[in-house]
């Protein structure tokens, strides 16, 4: 996953779209969820999940965790202060687009959302 700001030439960060939860609960110092490279590096002790399959979101709870991580850990922003530009596959079902917009407005309180089709945005 590539994340950043629209006026940057390159993404702020690039990381794998994976979340991991500990196989064994209750170990001191363990997080509830590991994301990206950190999850991959601890794959022996985690159950890994991929919230996006074939460019389509299939696990909404994990995707919400991923967006939270992006906003608060990677970008260090308050999402309500920004308009979000998210890319999507040309084959994204309408119901998924609606769900993305709903989460961005209702959970993250963003000021706006624009969904752009990946190949179209590549031209810019």
UniProtKB/TrEMBL annotation:
Catalyses which reaction(s): ATP + H2O = ADP + phosphate + H(+)
One Pfam family it belongs to: Actin
Stored Gene3D superfamilies: 3.30.420.40
SUPFAM superfamilies xref list: Actin-like ATPase domain
GO cellular component, one term: cytoskeleton
Main location class: cytoplasm
Keywords assigned by UniProt, alphabetized: ATP-binding, Cytoplasm, Cytoskeleton, Nucleotide-binding
Subcellular location: Cytoplasm, Cytoskeleton
InterPro entries: Actin, ATPase_NBD
GO molecular function: ATP binding
Protein name: Actin
Organism: Reticulomyxa filosa
């Amino acid at each position: 996953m590539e994340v950043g700001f629209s006026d940057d030439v390159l993404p702020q960060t690039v990381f794998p779209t994976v979340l991991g939860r500990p196989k064994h609960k209750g170990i001191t110092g363990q997080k509830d969820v590991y994301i990206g490279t950190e999850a991959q590096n601890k794959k022996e002790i985690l159950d890994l999940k991929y919230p996006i399959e074939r460019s389509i979101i299939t696990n909404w709870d994990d995707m919400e965790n991923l967006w939270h991580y992006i906003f608060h850990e990677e970008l260090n922003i308050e999402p309500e202060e920004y308009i979000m530009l998210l890319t999507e596959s040309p084959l994204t079902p309408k119901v998924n687009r609606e769900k993305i917009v709903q989460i961005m407005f209702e959970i993250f309180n963003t000021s706006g959302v624009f969904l752009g089709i990946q190949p179209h945005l590549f031209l810019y």
